Each structure stands twice: as structure tokens, then as C-alpha cells.
Amino acid sequence: MTTLTIAPAAPQDVAQLRQLYFDVYGHGYPVALGSDPEEMRRLIADPHTHWLTARHEGAGHLAGSVAVQTDPGSRIGKLVGLAVHPDQRGGGLAGRLTAEVCGDAFATGALDSVYATVRVVTPGPQQVFARNGFQALGLLPNAVEVAGCESLALFARHADGVLARREDVPRVPDALLPLLAAARRSTGLEYGHPLPADGPAAQAGPVTAPVAAPATAPMELISAPGFVRRRFLQLFPDPAERFFPLHVPNAVLTPPDGSFEAYADLDPVAASCSLVAVHPSPAAVTGALEPLMAAVTRAGADYVETLLPLADTAGLSAFLAAGFIPSAVYPAMRRIGDRFHDYVVLSRTSRQIDFRTTAVSVPLQPYLAAYLTAWTSTYLPLPEVAP
Asked: CA 386 from chain center: how many Å?
């Protein structure tokens, strides 16, 4: 029996790494980490990326691969590229790789959490993460193109003591309540039993009013990564104002009058888009998200997501009003001082959602029910019945 060795990836591994990802995913892998040799060499040399490979002595190919990319400013890591060669499946290698790369990541003391977006075409990947201390946080329908449109699940693992220092949020929009109830059932975490912000209790405190924007304004999309990054840093010089870990905008969307600028990480290969930040505020896109979505769709993205604080009632309300669905809640995502703040992922897809091919594990089932409830209330309102 040959010995399996796990070791850091090296530049000379790039060709075999590309072959590994091809053997696992075919031509459909949408991530540069497993397909672009130049980007792979850059990540191997990047001090903020910890990439491990698994190899049997004497074997002509790699048995597995996994990496954690870190965002030092936010103290968050993302586990990416977990792959096990088809010949090696069923032997626990995926779990061993996950355990080792996470153990290394948290041992530095520089991370508060590590998250992963997990395929749900089979239950195996979900079980690997659950066994390694990750908790299911939500479901992202139609999130990526991997040899066909696939949904993903959001999982995260926190460093010791982090979840005990979360800030309570007393009020949230009513549409978020099913998601938070699902999170309680799945993770056991409490969310302070928040009161709906659009109910009578919301009148007890001030609520920031959304900024109106033209509902029919045409949207201009500027795709010039260097310019976009410079402009983004000019408008958001404070890192605290541009919190969207491990996402760098490469496009900006704006109406002709320049009333707002929406910065996006647009990936036509994966058919997805992350709205990273809006200037002057997320609520500034109120009424203008329809033309924004149309522009993003023309650019090749059928799935759009954004990330907002659970406490940002105005921003959340703006996206909810435009058909975005509460898809996941990330507890203790952001550290401010000695406290941690929860964030919400909202998503919208322009393609028909088909859950028939998904294998939703028990921890994810409450999120599926919550998503269906939210989607139905948004897109299939009950008809009014005259008394």
C-alpha cells in the first residue's frame, strides 16, 4: 500500500492540479484556481493562500487538493477547490484535507471564521463539511454554472469564542423572519427573536428612509477592472465601508445621472455577479434595481447576490422590494472592536429554479423551506379576495 502525503502546493504541481480538476469536473470548472495556470501560480506564491495537495507515493497524478484563501482585513477565510480524484473517493481523503487545511488556518490566530460554498448535487460534500465543524447557513439557488446551472449551500466554521460575542439585532424586515427561524433550527444559534421592522414595533425607533432612484433609468455598465478598482478605493477609502470579503469589483453600474454607483464582481464564466458596494449607500438603488438586473443579465450573469448587515433595515428593504430573496445568514461575520455582527446574503436569479436534482441534507432542509416561503411570497402573492 502506498503512503498518502499531504503537503503545500508547489509551482511544479500546476500541470497535475489542472489535470485533477479536469478529471473531477471536466471542462465545466468555473474557478481560475483550477483552470488558469498563471492564476494558480500566483495563488501558490500568495502568502494569504494556503494550498494543500495529496499524493500517493509513486502515483502519476495528484489524489486531492484544497485551499483556504484569507482576507486579512476582515479575518475571514474561504475554503475553495476541494477536489478528490475519482479513483480515491470513499476513503475519507476529502475530510482529511478539510481538517488539515482548516486546522492550519485557525492555528495562526488570524481568522475568526472560514466559509465555503458547497455543491448540493450529492450529499457527500455537505457531510464532509458538517463532520469538520462547519454549520449550514443557507442555500444559494442557481448560484453557479458548473457544466450546467447548480445551486450551492453556504457553510461556515468559527474560531472558538467568536459566536458568543455576537451583537443582537432587535428588528429586521418581516421577510427575513423565515430565514432566521431556519437558522435557529439548523444551527441552534439564537437571533434575539427580532421584531419585524415593517410592523408596528418598528415605530419605536428611527429607521433610515431609502433614497429614491429613477425606476426606469437606463443602466450603464463599465467593465474596466483597473479603473473600477481605483474608483472604488477613492469612494470607499475606509476598509470598514467596503466589507465584502474576498471579492474585488471589476465592473461598475450607474444611471446616466450618476445618482449612485454600484460596484460588482462580475463573473460571466460562472454566470454570477456579487454586488460588492453601492455609493452613497445600498438604499440608493431603491427603484433602480430592475434596470440594474437587466444590465447584469446582458453581461452574462444569471445569478446576482449581495451582502448586507442584518441591522441595515433600509438596505435590506431596498433589495427585498426588488425581488431579492433572503438566502443565507452568516452569524458573527464581521468583527468591530470586541463584538461580532451578523450579515445576510440576498440573491436573485433570472433562470427557472429546479430543486429536483439537489440533495439537501438535514441541516439544509430548513433553509430550503424558508427560501421557498420567501420566493412564493415575493413572486406568487396570494390574490386579493373581496369580502
From this structure: 43
pLDDT digits (tens, 9 = 90+) for 12-63: 999 999 999 999 988 777 788 988 999 999 999 999 999 999 998 776 789 9
C-alpha cell at position 384 = 386579493
Bridge partners, 99 (sequence order): none
- Do 51 and 9 meet the contact criterion of CB atoms below 8 Å apart? yes
Give the C-alpha separation, 130 to 99, whole Å: 11
First-to-final CA distance of the chain: 77
Helices in 256-298 by DSSP H: which ranges?
A: 289-298
pLDDT tens, residue by residue, 53-105: 999 877 678 999 999 999 988 999 999 999 999 988 888 999 999 999 999 99
Q: Is 150:164 a contact under the CB 8 Å cutoff?
A: no
Of 337, 308, 277, whose CA–CA distance to 169 is shortest?
A: 308
CA pair distance 243, 223, nearest whole angstrom? 21
- Of 382, 307, 373, 375, nearest in space to 341 by CA: 307
Contact 314, 282 (CB under 8 A): yes
Q: Is 108 exposed, middle or buried (0-12, 13-18, 19+ CB in 10 A)?
A: exposed
CA distance 151 to 142: 5
In this prediction the pTM is: 0.91
- Which among 277, 281, 309 is positioned nearest to 168, based on CA atoms? 309
